[in-house]
Write a structure and sequence with these properties.
Two copies of one chain form a homodimer. By secondary structure, the first copy, chain A, is mainly β. The first copy, chain A, has a single domain, classed as Pnp Oxidase, Chain A. Chain A has four helices and 14 strands. In chain A, the strands form four sheets. In chain A, strands 1, 2, 3, 4, 5, 6, 9 and 10 form an eight-stranded antiparallel sheet that branches. In chain A, β2 and β3 form a beta hairpin. Chain A is globular. In chain A, 51% of the residues are buried. Chains A and B meet through β4, β5, α2, α4 and β12 of A and β4, β5, α2, α4 and β12 of B.
């Protein structure tokens, strides 16, 4: 699948010291990587924040996944936040493996792009993107399938994230992030409250 | 603060192989522990699932927190899921430290209980509770403030969680879980969708 260099509309940089805010609310993510001309995308509910600055993230990647091998080979990956409108796509790329469904990205309508200076594939339609450098921790990777990345750049859709905050209430509900419960069922990010 | 052995209404066991489902959607949690007669509770947005069975969780605990020291000393802790109704309590116990506010639990209206056979304090009013045994990983704890726990027992409020699934739409909105964004602002778990 060819990468395009056409950036999504509303794709705006997020300052690194605010990048953790994209993930603070625990959304399900799409994990993307490429190596030697092969790109892949999987879904992961088990991803989260590890540190503020420099921002670090964790993500759990099963040994059976094709994307994990691309990350181990390239030392780079991206986490990105799919929307309510992308729930079926998310379940699709989280269920099919490229090992058995080589055209899984095409099958599930995944469109990729990349930013200047990076070969890591990013997924169109998401509302947050975090480009990461793998911090190699062989014990964690082998024993727990746990991967740590340092965020080197981040972007968000400025219709729903600006000035370091989500503003879902001001935009189309289709742009809200999703949180996997089980079996393709998701809780959509809901009301904003102050506590 | 004395523990009571009176269990909350609607407090029902969750099978260990379904315990990860309590955390799969990335809620903000309260972290509780006790040692040598001292109990404490803090808030953590950076907690998540590490494995299905036996279920394992991760949580990031800053070195400055009093609760971390109790976990390191006792080797046990609990993660539990506060509700929309508990957002102010959650911000309170996440902001004040027992180091400087010794009566923080009383100040923020935290009521504790425990289950037979365990001395780990649990927080009344939550909708999910996961009792954990610390899996000692000194490198992760020291370098990343990252703690791993194996879930040894779990419970949920059966008004909102049953048969391994959340059912928020059938209950009072005040019982929905919350996801911290920043500065005491939370996204409440919203609609359930199938993707």
């Amino acid at each position: 699948m060819p990468l395009t260099s056409a950036l999504p509309a509303h794709f705006q940089p997020v300052a690194l010291d605010k990048a953790y805010r994209l993930m603070n609310h625990g959304p399900t993510v799409l994990v993307s990587a490429s190596h030697a001309g092969v790109a892949n995308v999987m879904a992961a509910a088990w991803a989260g924040v590890l540190d503020f600055m420099p921002p670090k993230l964790t993500v759990v990647l099963d040994k059976a996944t094709a994307t994990r091998a691309l990350i181990e080979a390239s030392g780079q990956f991206a986490l990105q936040l799919p929307t309510r409108a992308m729930a079926t796509l998310t379940t699709g790329v989280g269920t099919d493996s490229a090992h058995t469904v080589p055209d899984k990205l095409h099958k599930h309508g995944v469109q990729l792009f990349s930013v200047p200076g990076s070969g890591v594939p990013l997924v169109q339609g998401c509302v947050g993107w975090l480009l990461c450098r793998l911090i190699s921790e062989p014990h964690n990777q082998q024993t727990y399938d746990l991967f740590i990345g340092e965020v080197t750049a981040a972007w968000a859709d400025d219709r729903v994230f600006s000035q370091g905050r989500w503003h879902f209430e001001q935009a189309d509900n289709a742009l809200r992030t999703i949180h996997h419960v089980a079996g393709g069922s998701y809780l959509v990010s809901g009301d904003t409250i102050q506590g």
